[in-house]
Design a protein that fits this description.
Elements (H helix, E strand, L loop, with lengths): L4 E4 L7 E7 L22 E5 L3 E6 L2 E5 L12 H21 L2 E11 L1 H12 L6 E5 L5 H5 L12 E6 L7 H13 L4 E6 L7 H16 L2
Parallel strand pairs: 2-3, 2-6, 6-7, 7-8, 8-9
Antiparallel strand pairs: 1-3, 4-5
Helix pairs in contact: 1-2
């Protein structure tokens, strides 16, 4: 595997219910790994790939991103988003060969820019995933219009969480994303919180319970 990534594996021999967690712009593979010991009491395997684009943070430090952005926070081109999605899909394929992943209990989760990729990945291949979680993110209209509805979308439970005071991605974008998902026949749980561009204790608790509901019953 030629993608830098962080990995948390719970006790036991597996295969394990697993989350592929995609970080946001300017973060790294370690950004979401800290959630792993707390989600469902540490029972989930969490695999966090790192985006290939260096994002200068000042002082010589870099974060990372998945695809270039315009000034409006949109992907620069449809092709850059497609290439990023293809790269992450190849990573998931390789991770399935290397790690003890329960293929029937595989969830893709993305925060902010990582959520755009999570949307694309899961909506393109809904039968592969037991769920999709988009945190402080958005489903660009151009992406939504590029996806054809199919019956498998009805089997993709999706959690959309957003802060009512998000200063990076306006909450109206998340609301529109939920409507676009419903138009595709995706079963959506939409939650807003008194927070900004972040994960707080309340949203984290809801995320953990949602994962437990959709992964334990399979």
């Amino acid at each position: 595997m030629h993608v830098i990534h962080a990995h948390y594996e719970p006790s036991g021999g597996g295969p394990h219910p697993t989350i592929i967690a995609l970080h946001g712009w300017g973060a790294s593979a370690m950004d979401l790994l800290g959630l792993a010991p707390l989600l469902m009491g540490g029972q989930l395997q969490v695999i966090c790939p790192q985006g290939p684009l260096a994002v200068p943070l000042g002082g010589g430090a870099n974060g990372y991103g998945w695809f270039p952005l315009t000034g409006a926070g949109q992907p620069t081109t449809t092709e850059t988003l497609k290439q990023a999605t293809d790269d992450v899909r190849a990573f998931v394929d390789a991770a399935s060969e290397r790690y003890p992943i329960d293929d029937q209990r595989l969830v893709v989760l993305g925060f902010s820019q990582g959520g755009v990729l999570a949307y694309r990945l899961a909506l393109d291949d809904p039968g592969r995933f037991a769920g999709l979680a988009a945190l402080s993110s958005w489903l660009p209209p151009a992406l939504a219009s590029d996806i054809s509805a199919n019956d498998a979308h009805a089997t993709l439970p999706t959690l959309v969480q957003h802060g009512a005071t998000d200063e990076v991605i306006a909450v109206a974008r998340a609301q529109q994303s939920a409507e676009s998902l419903r138009a595709l026949g995706v079963p959506v749980t939409y939650r807003e919180y008194a927070m900004g561009h972040e994960i707080n204790a309340e949203s984290f608790g809801d995320l953990s319970r949602w994962l437990q509901e959709h992964l334990e019953r399979r």
